[in-house]
Please model this.
Amino acid sequence: MNPNEVLKEIDKDLIFYGESDGGVTVSGGEPLLQLGFLKTLLEECKERNIRTAVDTCGYAPHKSIDMISDKVDLFLYDIKLMDERKHRKYTGVSNKLILDNFKRLAENGSNVLVRFPIIPGINDSEDNVTQTAELMISCGTKNISLLPYHRAGTEKYTGLGRTYKLSKTRSPSDQNLRRIKVELEGLGLRVKIGGG
Model:
């Protein structure tokens, strides 16, 4: 679809946005990989006074973030791992650009909600949790959603003929989620489990 086709669908729900204080959330994949489309869509939403959110991992050139940040009311920003070596091992890329973009958004006063997927045995260590909190606090960001890992993507990988490398990984226990929540709250963050 092109931006105008998407806007026709959005326009059908304008009444709901006004009554619910809701808006449009752009997610993906990674929306910043389709920067022209994203920028046009966000501009048109702003023209219609529709609130906007962008769900991103932040792995994009600084200029991409800069081009849209003034058109976004809320960034839903994934932070997975603070250790660069581990981040590269599990995601295939360095986290340097991701963390730099997060800092830039915070410094520029953007509204950012950190979304922290909890993946047992990979990023749920006390050290990673503490470092994530320290980054947020240093940037003046206080809101974080803990997203319990699930295996919903397994079928997609199978359908694509790819191996799902986390097939043996289980969802975090309620006890582990509570431990992380208490730890983050103890450091001064506002924590929600699930959603955005």
Summary: The chain has nine helices and six strands. The chain has a mean pLDDT of 93. The longest strand covers residues 112-118. Residues 1-53+63-69 form one domain.
